[in-house]
Structures are given as structure tokens and as C-alpha cells.
Design brief:
The structure holds three protein chains of three kinds. By secondary structure, chain A is mainly alpha-helical. Chain A is 54% helix and 10% strand. Chain A is built from seven helices and five strands, in the order H-H-H-H-H-H-E-E-E-E-H-E. In chain A, the strands form two sheets. A three-stranded antiparallel β-sheet of chain A has the order 4-1-5. The longest helix of chain A is centred in the middle third of the chain and has 38 residues, at 74-111. Chain A is flat, with a radius of gyration of 23 Å. Chain B has two domains: 1-64, Up-down Bundle (Methane Monooxygenase Hydroxylase, Chain G, domain 1), CATH 1.20.58; 67-168, Methane Monooxygenase Hydroxylase, Chain G, domain 1 (Up-down Bundle), CATH 1.20.58.2050. A three-stranded antiparallel β-sheet of chain B has the order 4-1-5, with helices on one face. In chain B, helix 5 (93-104) packs antiparallel against helix 6 and helix 6 (108-128) runs parallel beside helix 8 (145-165). By secondary structure, chain C is mainly α. Chain C has a domain at 4-21 and 73-183: Methane Monooxygenase Hydroxylase, Chain G, domain 1, CATH 1.20.58.1020. The radius of gyration of chain C is 25 Å and the shape is elongated. The chains are: A mainly alpha, B mainly alpha, C mainly alpha. Chains in contact: A-B, A-C, B-C. Chains A and C meet through helix 1, helix 2, helix 3, helix 4 and strand 1 of A and helix 1, helix 2, helix 3, strand 6 and helix 7 of C.
Chain lengths: 227, 185, 210
């Protein structure tokens, strides 16, 4: 990506290199982290990837431990430790953004099957406990003291036709995205009236600001990266 | 609903609109000028938007176009958009416009909002990433809340970039994270 | 405004961009002998004195800090190349494509940690500042031309840091344009009449929501 635009012989070398490192799990984690950070709603938990990264982290922790006991050159140990810290940062940050989103939209996530299925086992457990606790708290401290028609934590009153008090992510947020390949014939799901029928195309490695809901499915299928 | 808990969204609905009662209503004390609690058909009353909206849904009132979207304001916006003091007319000019347009059924309000924003946004833009505006500047006093938010958004992005460039703090490991993790199982 | 925390959520800090840029590969000339490093992020080395090798920037800086290598500044970070870029930037409204995506972060990292490895450091630094200024003015000029009737805004050759600075502003402005231009602002007449008999107090709020 970055090196793509550097001219000359460096360019092909850098491209090869990019292709090579794009396969490492750290690169994949970085991509998942950026997507998760930039997307307004919670994305599918990268379960296989996270399992692999966790394994690599544990392995590296053991390696560092071992190197310390056999008295390996401290410089090299500190470099291993730095690499480990960087990976841990990505992993922690990834998990924390997800928790932030869950805390913010927990009721919505819990009742929306599509979103619920995107969570990991631990996240589901966390969400259940959060929603149960908050619901109980709201009911005990406020709702039970209100007139009968106003005791829902989801609806303003019994005549509300939908769950109008449940915060939801704003899918009309504008996001910054980039495609790796040339994409044509993208049918936008939404947009200003004049443009709605038009097909949209994306050049590779060019940045676009676009409404998240228009490209949601392309983000989910991995064709487009957010950044 | 996305923004039930949004304080600004609630405040927008506090904006006063004038309505004309289509039905007589008794037992209500919403018209302070009236000595009785009875409102006759055809009475003109000023109400907060949220109440006017509810009554309109019940066909009890018809809502008038608020002064900030009337012909006079429109002409002023057309003439010198960037300098019009929208703030004193309505701090939530755009948000209120979006809410009032379907109620009064006036499609031209959408165009008005769009053209006003388009022209004024440029002014915000040119100031946003460069000079900081002093607190007392006239510029502040004519902007709507959304315009001020937009300006502040740009300013804070630029400020955090400058801080970083001047050698702001680099990522460091929190001491608690430096320690060895306990096995979770 | 609603969604403000959303904006914050999606924003990358300058420090986070720096973190990302630290994975960019640079050439170093080690002055120590060290076995290859098999890291989670890839295998690097072996390290042999005076033999150029490629490592990520964070690794280069770590070695440099300990006096174990010198960093070879990337080709684009020379007075000659940067002068060309600056001229090109001044000549055209288009953004030059000769700078890497993370040029702002890379140059700051190298100035902070490997200044002695950059020839004409002072000149290089001021050229980069000038280039950034020229480019930023171009972005602003482009932004002034916004008219709102667009489904997407295409940004060619803007760097990671540059785009990150304007991202909150553009995102917010586009959202405002989008909202005021939305067909939902006024529902179809049939829908209005459908809605009429309804007396549910809160139902119609929805279509008004941004």
C-alpha cells in the first residue's frame, strides 16, 4: 500500500514484499483492527485469526522466557519483547473497540440476530451479563416506579410501535475506504436521489469517503478495507 | 432509534413554532394570553415543536412555517449567505429545518438548508484548519450549533496532529500491562 | 450531536498512525553481528556488520537507539527528490504520487531518531514541511468545491496523516450534505396520508431522524 507509489525498481520489490507480508497474521489482525475501528457497527469476530494470534503470542511469551533463562543476548531478547508488545497492543485494542461497541449498543446487539451471531463466545457472555444487569438496574431504580404503561426499558410507552429507546449504530456515517482491486458495477444501496441508480466503481488503492451503509456488504465480504 | 438519548435532538424539539388550532379545545392552559382554559378554533398559539407535532398528528392544529425559514430569511441567505446570523434565528437551524419540513410539507426547506450549508461550510472550512478564532470574534456569534461543531471537529483534529508533530508522547506500555499475565484457565 | 462518539470511535490518533507506519520497511546498515530474528511480524536478519538488511522501522529505531546500526533514509527523502516533488506539487492541483502513504510519520520518526543519518537534514525537513503545506492547501481547495450531490468523494494520493486530519471534518460535512439532500426529508405524499390517522405519539419520529 504505502510503497505502491514509490517509483522504479523499489516499487516491484516493495510490491513483492507487500504480497509476502500481507499473509502474516499480524497484518491480518491489523486489517481487522482498522476495519473494526472505522466501522460504526460491530463486525464479525475474526475467530480463527484471533485464535492463531493468541497461540503465536503464547508461543512467543514462552520463547522470550526461555531466552531469558538461558542468558541470550539481552538486545535480541528486548527486540522479541517489542515485537510481542506490538502484537499484544493490536490484539488488546481490537478487543477493546469491540467491547466499547457492545457496551454502547448492547440491547440492540442482543435482540438483532445478525449482530448477535457476530460475537465471540466470551463477548456473548459479556453482553448477556451487561444487558441483564443494566435492565435489572433500570427496572429496580426507575421503571418499576413509573406508571404501568411506561415500564419498558426499550419503549417509551406501550403505544410505541418499535423499540424506540434502544440506541443503534448510525449506519449513515461516512467512512474512509480502499479497495485492493478494481471494483465495478457496485450497486449502491443508498445515496442521494439523483445518484441512486448509478453503478459505482472503485479504483484500486484510491481512497474514498462513502456512506457506510452503501458499502457495508463489501466490507463484510472483505473486498473493501476501511481505514 | 439511533438518537433517543441525544440531548441536542431533544433541545431542537424545544424550538417554538406558531400553530393555528383547527379544533376547539377545553381544559388546556397552553395559551398564556387567554384568561380561560378554553381555546377556540382558529386561535393562533405558540408552542414548542414537540407539542405542536403531536397535536398536528391528531389534526388538532396546523403548523405555520417558522420565521427562520420564511421568505425574508431566504432572501437574506441568497444575498449573502456566509454573513447571515443564523444563530440568533435558530441555533439548530439545520436540525430544526429537517424536522419542520415534513410537518409543514414544504419541500423547498430542504433546498434552502442544502444551499445555506453549502455556502457557509466553505467559510467554516477556510477558518477551521488554519487560524484559531478568538472567543469574542463575530464569526462565532453567527454560526449555528452544527457549524460550530464542524469547526471544532476540524480544529481538534489539526491540534492533535500538531501536538504529535511537536513531539507529543509516544505510545508507551502501561505499567500494569508490562507485568506477566496470569494464565486465564 | 448524535454520532459524535461514533466519530471519535472511528478516528485514528496520530500515535496510532505512527504505530502503523512503524511497520514500513527500511534499509539499515548494522554494526553488530546477530542471528536472524523470527518475530511474530516476520523473520528479519541475519545482521552482519556493514551488510545492508531490511527491517521494519520500529526495529530499525530500536537498534539505532542502542547505537547498533545506521538507517538508510528512503530514496524519496533526499533534497533532490523532494525538490522535484515540491515543484510538481506547486505546478498542479493534482497530488503528487511520489510520496509514500506514510511519508509524514516516516519522516518524523527518522528526524527524531536518525537525524545524523539524513544528509542535509535541515533542508530535507523544511522541504517536507513545505510539501505538506502545499498539499494541505490543495485539499482545502478541493473541499471548497464540494457541492453535496455526490455519493462518494474520491481522494487520490492523499497520505495517511493528511487524510486523517481532514477525516472528521469531511465525514461530518458529508453527513450534513447527505442529510439535507435526503429524499426522506419529506416523505411521499401517499406515505403522509397513510400516516395521518395514526395517533401513536412517537412513531413518526423515526423518519425524521438523521
Amino acid at each position: 500500500m504505502a510503497s505502491g507509489s514509490v517509483e522504479g525498481e523499489q516499487s516491484s520489490l516493495a510490491d513483492d514484499y507487500d504480497a509476502l507480508i500481507s499473509t502474516t497474521d499480524v497484518e491480518l489482525l491489523k486489517r481487522a483492527w482498522r476495519n473494526e475501528k472505522a466501522a460504526p457497527e460491530i463486525l464479525r469476530f475474526e475467530s480463527d485469526l484471533i485464535t492463531r494470534v493468541r497461540e503465536q503470542i503464547e508461543l512467543m511469551e514462552e520463547t522470550v522466557e526461555e531466552k531469558l533463562t538461558v542468558g541470550t543476548d539481552p538486545l535480541s531478547v528486548s527486540l522479541y519483547q517489542m515485537d510481542l508488545d506490538r502484537t499484544l497492543f493490536l490484539l488488546r485494542s481490537y478487543l477493546r473497540i469491540r467491547i466499547l461497541k457492545i457496551e454502547k449498543y448492547m440491547f440492540h446487539i442482543r435482540k438483532t440476530e445478525e449482530l448477535w451471531n457476530r460475537l465471540s463466545k466470551d463477548e456473548k457472555f459479556f453482553t448477556e451479563r451487561c444487558t441483564d444487569d443494566l435492565k435489572k438496574h433500570l427496572e429496580e431504580s426507575v421503571l418499576s416506579k413509573l406508571p404501568e404503561n411506561y415500564q419498558s426499558y426499550e419503549r417509551q410507552s406501550v403505544i410505541s410501535e418499535e423499540d424506540d429507546m434502544v440506541p443503534e449504530p448510525r449506519l449513515d456515517t461516512f467512512v474512509l475506504c480502499r479497495s485492493k482491486e478494481y471494483l465495478t458495477g457496485i450497486q449502491l444501496e443508498d445515496g442521494p436521489v439523483d445518484d441512486r441508480s448509478k453503478l459505482f466503481e472503485m479504483e484500486p488503492d484510491v481512497l474514498y469517503f462513502i456512506c457506510y451503509k452503501s458499502i457495508k456488504s463489501l466490507v463484510e465480504s472483505g473486498k473493501i478495507d476501511l481505514l | 432509534m439511533a438518537n433517543y438519548y441525544d440531548i441536542d435532538d431533544i433541545l431542537v424539539e424545544e424550538e417554538i413554532v406558531s400553530v393555528i388550532f383547527q379544533k376547539a379545545a377545553s381544559g388546556v392552559g397552553i395559551d398564556p394570553s387567554s384568561e380561560t382554559d378554553f381555546i377556540e378554533t382558529g386561535s393562533k398559539v405558540e408552542l414548542p415543536f414537540w407539542l405542536a407535532h403531536e397535536l398536528q398528528l391528531r389534526q388538532a392544529v396546523s403548523v405555520n412555517v417558522p420565521p427562520c425559514f420564511n421568505q425574508k430569511t431566504r432572501l437574506e441567505i441568497q444575498a449573502d449567505c456566509a454573513c447571515v446570523d443564523l444563530r440568533s434565528r435558530c441555533p439548530y437551524f439545520y436540525e430544526f429545518g429537517c424536522k419542520i419540513a415534513p410537518i409543514v410539507g414544504d419541500r423547498t426547506i430542504g433546498f434552502l438548508l442544502l444551499s445555506a450549508f453549502k455556502n457557509r461550510y466553505r467559510e467554516v472550512l477556510t477558518k477551521a484548519h488554519t487560524a484559531a478564532i478568538t472567543a469574542g470574534s463575530k464569526f462565532w456569534t453567527i454560526l449555528t450549533n452544527e457549524e460550530i461543531n464542524l469547526y471544532e471537529t476540524a480544529q481538534s483534529a489539526m491540534a492533535s496532529f500538531k501536538k504529535w508533530r511537536m513531539g507529543g508522547a509516544r505510545f508507551q506500555i502501561a505499567s500494569i500491562l508490562g507485568r506477566k499475565r496470569k494464565p486465564t484457565e | 450531536m448524535a454520532g459524535q462518539s461514533n466519530h471519535e470511535l472511528s478516528l485514528f490518533s496520530a500515535e496510532e498512525l505512527e504505530f502503523i507506519a512503524e511497520d514500513e520497511i527500511v534499509d539499515i546498515v548494522p554494526n553488530l553481528k546477530m542471528d536472524p530474528l523470527c518475530l511474530i511480524s516476520g523473520d528479519f536478519g541475519p545482521f552482519t556488520p556493514q551488510i545492508v538488511t531490511q527491517v521494519p522501522l520500529w526495529l530499525a529505531i530500536a537498534l539505532k537507539k542502542r547505537g547498533k546500526c545506521s538507517i538508510v533514509p528512503p530514496q524519496w527523502m533526499s533534497v533532490e527528490k523532494l525538490t522535484q516533488v515540491l515543484e510538481a506539487e506547486r505546478d498542479s492541483q493534482e497530488m503528487s504520487e511520489h510520496l509514500p502513504f506514510h511519508y509524514v510519520e516516516i519522516s518524523r520518526l527518522l528526524f527524531d531518531h536518525a537525524r545524523d543519518n539524513i544528509s542535509d537534514a535541515y533542508m530535507v525537513r523544511s522541504l517536507i514541511e513545505d510539501i505538506r503545506d502545499v498539499r494541505f492547501h490543495k485539499v482545502e481547495t478541493d473541499l471548497e468545491a464540494f457541492n453535496g450531490r455526490t455519493i462518494a468523494v474520491k481522494i487520490k494520493n492523499l497520505s495517511a496523516m493528511e487524510v486523517n486530519i481532514v477525516r472528521p471534518f469531511i465525514g461530518r460535512a458529508l453527513q450534513a450534505f447527505y442529510k439535507h439532500d435526503s429524499p426522506d426529508l419529506i416523505p411521499d405524499p401517499e406515505r403522509v396520508s397513510d400516516r395521518r390517522p395514526q395517533v401513536a405519539p412517537n412513531a413518526p419520529r423515526r423518519q425524521l431522524r438523521r
